[in-house]
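Design job #97: recover the sequence.
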């Protein structure tokens, strides 16, 4: 894994630690735990001495999250031989601030920082519909109070249509939980949302933007200046176990 990929992976892991209700190290691996919320609940940052069977038993007996996220494809193969199934692979993306490229303008679109509770409820609804997640308002309010986190909501003619979470560490901003309302998809709103959120972060002094994406979303991110790396994050699930 090259330096750029390591920066992206470390940023994701910092996000999990920062947003989780509880983050801890157990048996040479970390867990992020967010009860009553779908995200973030991951096993991550394993070292070479991790005992997979022992972790399996802890998951089965104590309700720890059954989703293991790793940048290591060889370790993913080992997990898949030990009761875990590969669910998806997220390509990693990075750009410098000077590479940010404006997408095609979406008429009437504006990106606003979430401040009002009504906008927080709208942000929650958009993300939950897109990802089939569940969040509590109490958890989202804690995120809002975190100086490393900005929640943004995209609007067209004052109607909420998109969401994004910016997470900033040092001079790096990561865009997460990007979503578009079902009635407004395939209109360039996702690219406009990501672009506007990056623009906000770069104007505040960030020098790099990072992200991970589904394969389907890659073209939208390329249009605004992202470079797609060969490295990926692999999400594995312990078969039969749910949060």
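Job complete. Output follows.
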């Amino acid at each position: 894994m090259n330096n750029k990929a390591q920066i992206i992976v470390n940023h994701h892991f910092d996000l999990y630690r920062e947003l989780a209700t509880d983050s801890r190290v157990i048996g040479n691996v970390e867990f992020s735990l967010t009860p009553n919320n779908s995200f973030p609940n991951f096993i991550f940052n394993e070292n070479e001495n991790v005992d997979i069977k022992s972790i399996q038993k802890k998951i089965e007996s104590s309700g720890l999250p059954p989703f293991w996220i790793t940048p290591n494809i060889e370790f993913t193969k080992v997990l898949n031989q030990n009761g875990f199934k590969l669910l998806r692979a997220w390509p990693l993306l990075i750009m410098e601030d000077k590479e940010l490229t404006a997408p095609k303008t979406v008429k009437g679109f504006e990106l606003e920082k979430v401040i009002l509770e009504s906008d927080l409820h709208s942000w929650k609804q958009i993300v939950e519909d897109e990802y089939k997640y569940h969040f509590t308002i109490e958890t989202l309010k804690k995120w809002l109070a975190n100086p490393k986190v900005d929640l943004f909501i995209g609007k067209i003619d004052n109607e909420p249509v998109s969401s994004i979470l910016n997470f900033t560490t040092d001079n790096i901003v990561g865009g997460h939980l990007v979503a578009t309302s079902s009635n407004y998809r395939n209109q360039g709103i996702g690219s406009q949302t990501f672009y506007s959120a990056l623009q906000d972060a770069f104007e505040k002094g960030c020098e790099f933007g990072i992200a991970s994406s589904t394969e389907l979303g890659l073209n939208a991110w390329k249009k605004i200046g992202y470079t797609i790396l060969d490295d990926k994050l692999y999400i594995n699930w312990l078969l039969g176990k749910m949060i």
